Amino acid sequence: MLELLAPDQVARSVSEIDLDALAARGTEGLIIDVDNTLIAGTRDVPCNAIGLDEATRSWLFRAKSMFRLCLLSNSVRGRRARRLAEELGIPGVSVWGLGRKPLRGGVWAALRQIGTAPEHTAMIGDQLLTDVLAGNRCGLYTIWVERISPREFIGTRANRIIEGWCARRLRRAGMLPPHGQDDETRQV
Fold first, then answer.
1. What is the pTM of this model?
2. Where are the domains of the chain?
3. Is 154 exposed, middle or buried (0-12, 13-18, 19+ CB in 10 A)?
4. 72-91 pLDDT, tens per residue?
5. Which CATH superfamily is domain 2-172 in?
6. Contact in structure between 32 and 70 (CB atoms under 8 Å)
7. pLDDT at residue 185 greater than cutoff 50
8. How many helices and strands, by DSSP H and E, does the chain display?
9. Could you give the CA distance from residue 160 to residue 150 in angstroms, rounded to a whole number?
């Protein structure tokens, strides 16, 4: 079970993910979580504001020129995810209920949107228990980034406690690559 929580790569932020390295490994599509991966959690940024920092915006536009992108959000209404997807000119999928990450429905919907195979797609997100687990369950290359803001919904805060415990176990088992390295370059 622990291996399902192990990301293939760890980065401090999306802007630190090496797009050329992803392309070299055969990646064709990126599915990217929204809240606390691309933009601060919903309590930090009002719904009518997007809040993309310049480094992330620049990275996204370069990624858009190299890969097929889709935003994937677990938010109930998905307004911010839809606005961001529209602003960037890329598809966005917002799921609630049975399609929510870590369940597979949202990931499969995102894959259909961009038309890539799981083995040629990377999932990028800030949570082990949702983003990484969903990506691993669907056979995607998974990248775990640090969250942007500590302010989160109460359910997410509870998940963070479990996530911390899992991350410590992954680290002890040699299954958590250091920042900037992937599963092929880490020492086990």
1. 0.88
2. 2-172
3. exposed
4. 998 777 788 888 999 999 99
5. HAD superfamily/HAD-like (3.40.50.1000)
6. yes
7. no
8. 6, 6
9. 10
